[in-house]
Amino acid sequence: MTGLLDGRAAIVTGAGRGIGRAIAESLVAEGTSVIVADNGASIGGEDGDPTVARETAAALGKKAIAFADSVASPGAATSLVELAVKNFGGIDIVVNNAAILRDAFVFRADPRDWDAVIRNNLSAAFYLINAASAVMRDQGKTGRGGAGGYDWGRIVNIVSSAGLYGNLGQAAYASAKAGLFGLTRVTAMDLARAQITANAIAPFARTRVTDIIQPANEAQKSYKERALKIGAHHVANLVTALCSPAGKGITGQLLGVRGREVFLFGQPRPIARIEAGASLAQDLSAKLADKFTDLTTDLEAFNTEPLL
After folding, report:
1. Is the pTM for the entire model greater than 0.90?
2. 9-269+295-301: CATH number
3. CA gap 157, 136 in Å, rounded
């Protein structure tokens, strides 16, 4: 506890449990005032429990307050930002962590489940960024953070390796998380002149998601066993580092954290090209097949021992 983030105000969604709670704890420990936004729903997004946010905020002490409504609406996002401004004088850090999971193969999925996951895991993040960034930009004009210019603004989106690699039966979840990375990139671009950063983190840690994995083979079984060993505090450490003064030059990046390992992911860019001709499909196979990306799932790709 160094007071590294004294004076900052943060909103952390999904902060009542798991990774979100670890992030909130880390930010508070460094001096940040935090809104614990969590409606206490199940991993599928049902059966909300307002005591989850309230009990977490109480445990964090006087620098934390609870918000127990769903964050998946523009109105909730506006209310969250207004709550931060009213109680803390502004908003400096937004961590979009709240997520639900409704898995099914694409040929069996219910479109209503798709809509719910996209709304909660992607649209909710946009709503909050939209509401908070407008206030952050104005704070830069009113001297928040001192006369040297406002450089406290930080947006961190918690994505998933499922959105980068794909995983069986996770069309909605993976699509939302992939979209969240796209949102991160555009947010970083749109807010660069205001010195507000935006980054994405793919976490590897024990969560409710890893707890409910039903291994279909030995590789998935060993992945789950390894994941259950990894504490959420490692993710919180990376979020806090990005929110620190030293993190002001890091934006638009895709990072991963697995125990003490921190990954910088490459981002999609062209790696080869051909000229289209009459036999395009044949040319694609003949000239580019050795560069095709295989169908490895994220569970298979990271099925190695973490650094703990």
Report:
1. yes
2. 3.40.50.720
3. 17
